[in-house]
Prior knowledge:
The chain has 141 residues and is an all-alpha fold. 71% of the residues lie in helices and 0% in strands.
Amino acid sequence: MSIVDLYESSKHRNNVAHFSAIVNIAMVDGDLNKDEEVLVSRFARKLDITEAEHEEIMKNSKKYPVVPQLRSDDRLERLLDLFKIIYADHRIDDSERKLILKYAIQLGFSHDTAEEIITKTVKVFSGKIDLDQYKSMLKIL
Length: 141
């Protein structure tokens, strides 16, 4: 097996684990709604999840552990994907917040950093930020 094959295999296992986390988040409050189904299917395509893998993960999404990410940007990208699923129904509930905190820590963030990122991201997704906060986040002006 070549180094490229090993990398691709590792990358795919990472994507399968991430897709499993997406499904867990989507299903934390019960069955998938239509918006969640659309997003889950979109993420399956984006992450190159096969139909067989998709079916297996839908049956037993807790089977796959979260894979820690070395780079901060990779951790943030994974969290953003999870927030997109959470906000498919335009709100976050306590069980979703607890689960995303757990995932953020498993991805490699410290507890305090994870709490801060989640609090700020919830403000953005829920539209509860003012202009100054928005500009500060964008580092403009």
